[in-house]
């Protein structure tokens, strides 16, 4: 068994899409990044890479590489999960926390769990996504950006 944790932050900007956990969310602000800036999928990718001691997302997909400009983070996560499987592991479970003052994430939690489970070839019951505000404090509280934290447990394929 291996455990990993991931954390990511992206800033809100006008004229950008808001894609979180692979789900498009209608909102007046979107998230800015070199890729599509899916803060949750990036934190999941980092948690998976951490669990297999393979560095981080920026190491595998540098933000200086034009290949990843506007990249679909779902594709990046699929590539990361292929590395996980190549090392002989499969998802045990995943627990995610999104920190955002706005928008309200509750309506999008189920579609996010479904999308993440699909990307990681897992059951929805293996994926939890929750959201919290930071009670108007800090950069998330000022609605300057969004953060996501993830803990992942991987299990040996032979034991699953
Ligand atoms: N962006 C968010 C933030 C929170 N929620 C939901 O609201 C509940 C209460 O949030 P607090 O920060 O006041 O604890 C939280 O447990 C979430 O269910 C949300 O949907 N979207
Ligand atoms: C995903 C990558 C690559 O396009 O770019 P960003 O969208 O800026 O995201 P970040 O979370 O800073 O992670 C690393 C990157 O290299």
Automatic annotation (TrEMBL):
| Keyword field contains Cell division | no
What are its cofactors?
a divalent metal cation
A Pfam family the protein falls into: YgbB
Gene Ontology terms describing biological process: isopentenyl diphosphate biosynthetic process, methylerythritol 4-phosphate pathway; terpenoid biosynthetic process
Q: Which domain of life is it from?
A: Bacteria
Where do the TM regions start and end?
Answer: none
Q: What catalytic activity does the UniProt entry give for this protein?
A: 4-CDP-2-C-methyl-D-erythritol 2-phosphate = 2-C-methyl-D-erythritol 2,4-cyclic diphosphate + CMP
Name the positions where 4-CDP-2-C-methyl-D-erythritol 2-phosphate binds.
8-10, 34-35, 56-58, 61-65, 100-106, 132-135, 139, 142
Q: Where does a divalent metal cation bind?
A: 8, 10, 42
Q: Which residues are listed under the site Transition state stabilizer?
A: 34, 133
InterPro entries, sorted: MECDP_synthase, MECDP_synthase_CS, MECDP_synthase_sf
Q: In which pathway does it act?
A: Isoprenoid biosynthesis; isopentenyl diphosphate biosynthesis via DXP pathway; isopentenyl diphosphate from 1-deoxy-D-xylulose 5-phosphate: step 4/6
Per the UniProt entry, the Enzyme Commission number(s) are 4.6.1.12
Q: Where is the 2-C-methyl-D-erythritol 2,4-cyclodiphosphate synthase domain?
A: 1-154
How the cofactor is bound: the record states: Binds 1 divalent metal cation per subunit.
The molecular function terms of the Gene Ontology recorded here are: 2-C-methyl-D-erythritol 2,4-cyclodiphosphate synthase activity; metal ion binding
- Quaternary assembly: Homotrimer.
The UniProt function text for this chain reads: Involved in the biosynthesis of isopentenyl diphosphate (IPP) and dimethylallyl diphosphate (DMAPP), two major building blocks of isoprenoid compounds. Catalyzes the conversion of 4-diphosphocytidyl-2-C-methyl-D-erythritol 2-phosphate (CDP-ME2P) to 2-C-methyl-D-erythritol 2,4-cyclodiphosphate (ME-CPP) with a corresponding release of cytidine 5-monophosphate (CMP).
Q: Give the similarity note.
A: Belongs to the IspF family.
Q: Which NCBIfam families match?
A: ispF
Q: Indicate what this protein is called per its UniProt record.
A: 2-C-methyl-D-erythritol 2,4-cyclodiphosphate synthase
Q: Which organism is it from?
A: Geomicrobium halophilum
